[in-house]
Amino acid sequence: MDMKQKLQEIHEEAIQKIQQIDALDKLQEIRVSYLGKKGQLTSLLKGMKDVAKEERPVVGQMVHETQSQIEELLDRTKKRLEEVALNAKLEAEEIDVTLPAKKSKIGHRHPNMIALEEVENIFIGMGYEVVSGPEIEYDEYNFRKLNIPDGHPAKDEQDTFWITDEIVLRTQTSPCQARTMERGPLPIRMIAPGRVYRSDEVDATHSPCFNQVEGMVIDKNITMADLKGTLDEFAKQLFGPETKTKFRPHHFPFTEPSAEMDVSCFKCGGKGCRFCQGTGWIEILGCGMVHPDVLEMCGIDSKEYTGFALGMGLERIALLKYEIDDLRRLYENDVRFLKQF
């Protein structure tokens, strides 16, 4: 086979293969196969020494033209494939500007946080500070310094989550009161909101994890009248200026005397309704004068200083204020429910 015929076959074969290419990566393989250092045209040129001298210019010209035609076809095919790829990408990523924009869903505060901020603002307005403490607490602060020694029934009543013999998940935020009394300085006016843990079954009014807000005042000449006046003002700001308060004798190990406080039903004004179960009153919190033994265990002279303490369940405040009938609704994360607040 002479050089001219071989060149013609290479030319036709290259054109056929290039026309069948459907991907850019295959195009480079064809270019190397025909035009590379070891390509077919390069190898053909190495055989020019066997061509007669008078035919070499003609064959050389034919090789050059074939190389140019293959390169031109490769360039046109590359542009065509790049255009196809770009159109496919644009079609896949096409944006329909006539579609409505996506609405941003902006969250808001949880009912618990709304209630907590309101409670905090009321007490801050009366000169109290907000303090916090560890949720994993020592038995010393969770019980003993609150006048609940080993073997005291209150330890059983609160169904504590024990981690070790000396470490518990706090059952109340009262340990913050003990730590604040130890740390000082006096006088003290503080509230301590936070999560607490008790081994309760989950139902409409109970949960093993819930929130408390406890408060305390320690100063000279603090009396029960100060406690009643403070809580009466708190109730009026929280539930309305017509709210009345009532104190019933109770027992708490860390206060003496102790009381439960009721507020007049803000739905019926104290007349009696389904909301207050016909009594006209709603139990809201526990309170009392700080027990002298608690003061002494925290390094405060009970003969010179007195004080009062109070404690309430934050969820209970939220349930009452927003008329929610089931505690579990606060933790089910149902957006349909939460967006009402």
TrEMBL record:
Cofactor(s) this protein cannot do without: Mg(2+)
Lineage: Bacteria, Bacillati, Bacillota, Clostridia, Lachnospirales
Membership in a protein family: Belongs to the class-II aminoacyl-tRNA synthetase family. Phe-tRNA synthetase alpha subunit type 1 subfamily.
UniProt-recorded Gene Ontology molecular function terms: ATP binding; catalytic activity, acting on a protein; magnesium ion binding; phenylalanine-tRNA ligase activity; transferase activity; tRNA binding
Protein's GO biological process: phenylalanyl-tRNA aminoacylation
The EC number(s) this enzyme carries: 6.1.1.20
Gene Ontology cellular component annotations, sorted alphabetically: cytoplasm
Alphabetical list of CDD domains matching this protein: PheRS_alpha_core (cd00496)
Location of the protein in the cell: Cytoplasm
Name of the protein in question: Phenylalanine--tRNA ligase alpha subunit
Cofactor note: Binds 2 magnesium ions per tetramer.
Keyword Aminoacyl-tRNA synthetase included in the entry's annotation: yes
Record note on quaternary structure: Tetramer of two alpha and two beta subunits.
InterPro entries: aa-tRNA-synth_II (IPR006195), aa-tRNA-synth_II/BPL/LPL (IPR045864), Phe-tRNA-synth_IIc_asu (IPR004529), Phe-tRNA_ligase_II_N (IPR004188), Phe_tRNA_ligase_alpha1_bac (IPR022911), Phenylalanyl-tRNA_Synthase (IPR002319), tRNA-bd_arm (IPR010978)
NCBIfam families: pheS (TIGR00468)
Ranges of residues in domain Aminoacyl-transfer RNA synthetases class-II family profile: 119-332
Record keywords, A-Z: Aminoacyl-tRNA synthetase, ATP-binding, Cytoplasm, Ligase, Magnesium, Metal-binding, Nucleotide-binding, Protein biosynthesis
Highest taxon of source: Bacteria
Catalysed reactions listed for this entry: tRNA(Phe) + L-phenylalanine + ATP = L-phenylalanyl-tRNA(Phe) + AMP + diphosphate + H(+)
Originating species: Blautia hydrogenotrophica (strain DSM 10507 / JCM 14656 / S5a33) (Ruminococcus hydrogenotrophicus)
Signal sequence residues: none
Chief location of this protein within or outside the cell: cytoplasm
Residues annotated as binding Mg(2+): E256
